[in-house]
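tokens incoming
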């Protein structure tokens, strides 16, 4: 099993160059020396993947919530910091609070 470090999530899983998905409950085949497994991780709140959680991430979440910006699958996973299945203004607020250190963890990281 894969347990991402605090604040992270499984972004993508590949098995022998085949994309298996990014969601929970993946069925991963047995891995031996003739196969390879690649697991990519993302960080909650880091929508632009610049390795920082700041106001630009909150802005992107807010723009997405009013359909001024489109998010890819990885950005949606990173932006849904309250773990309710959608990126909305509440996520933008949490990301902004995290960026100024009013909170140190997101609700999605605690589930």
């Amino acid at each position: 099993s894969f347990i991402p470090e605090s604040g992270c999530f499984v972004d993508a899983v590949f098995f022998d160059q085949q994309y298996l998905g990014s969601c929970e409950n993946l069925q991963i085949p047995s891995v031996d020396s003739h196969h390879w497994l690649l697991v990519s991780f993302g960080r909650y709140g880091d929508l632009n993947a610049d390795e920082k959680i700041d106001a630009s991430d909150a802005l992107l979440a807010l723009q997405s919530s009013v359909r001024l910006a489109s998010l890819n699958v990885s950005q949606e996973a990173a932006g849904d910091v309250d773990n309710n299945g959608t990126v909305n203004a509440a996520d933008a607020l949490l990301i902004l609070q995290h960026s100024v250190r009013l909170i140190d963890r997101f609700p999605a990281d605690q589930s």
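note: The mean pLDDT is 83.
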